[in-house]
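Quarterly update, task 2.4: manganese (II) ion-bound model.
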Amino acid sequence: QLPKIYAITPTYKRPVQKAELTRLSHTLMLVPNLHWVIVEDAEKKSELVANLLARTGMPYTHLHAVTPATWKIKPKEAWYNKPRGVLQRNAALAWLRANVRSDEEGVVYFADDDNAYALEVFDEMRYVKTVGVWPVGLVGGLMVERPKVNAEGKVVGWLTVWSPNRPFAIDMAGFAVNLKLFMSKPEGKFKNEVQKGYQESEFLRHFVTSLDDVEPKAENCTKVYVWHTRTENPPLREEIRLKKEAKPPSD
Ligand code: UDP
Ligand code: MN
C-alpha cells in the first residue's frame, strides 16, 4: 500500500472556477492513493463543486469555510494585498486532525486550484518523512524559485530574490509535510495576521526547527514539477452588456 497523499485545495466562485477544477481534478485522478480535500470559500457548498467531485470517482472530502469580508480581497484591490485560502486550508487541517488515524502513512500537500502539476511531484512527495521541499516554477518574479542544496545534499537556504531571509522562503506548492509529523503538532496552522509572504513560514515553523530536518526532493531540487501559474480573469464585457440589455429600462 502506497503512503496516502492528502491534497488540500481552497477554491472560490469565479468565471474560471469550473475550468480550473476540471483541469486539477483530471491531474489528481491520475495519482494513486490520493485523497482530495477541497474547501470552498463560501457560505455553503455548491452544486458545481459537488457534481464535479462526484464525477471524479476518486476519494474526496468536500468542505466549506467562508473568508470574512475584512479579509476578502476587494474587486479593485491587488491580489497580493491579503492572504488567500487561509481559513479554507485551516478547515481542511482541522478535518484531517479529526478524521485521520495518527499512525497512517502519508503526507499533507497544499494544491491550489490554479497551479500546474506534473505527476512527478506526487511521486516525489509521497515518501517524505519530515518536510519535503522542491522547486516551484513561475513564482516570485522568477522562472523558478528553489531550495539551495549543498554538496552533501542538505538544504541550506533558499534561492529566491523576493525576501530570501524568510525562515522558509518557499511557495505553498513547494513542500509537503509527513502525515504523522503533521498529526503530532496540533498547533500547526495558517493565520490571516502574518506579514506578506510568511504564510508558509508561519505553518512550517511548527514542524521543522532546523533546515537540517528538511528533505530536498526532485533530484536535489534541480527539477521543476510544479508551476505557480495564475489564470487571467477573462474580460466578460459582452456578458455584462447582454445582461444590461436584457433588463427593462428603469424609467
Ligand atoms: N482562494 C480562495 N478565496 C479567495 C481567493 C483565493 O479560496 O478569495 C483560493 C484559490 O482558489 C487558490 C488559493 O486560495 O486555490 C490561492 O489563491 P490564488 O491562487 O488567488 O493566490 P496565489 O496563488 O496567486 O497566491
Ligand atoms: Mn494561485
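Highlight for this quarter: The chain is about 25% helix and 20% strand.
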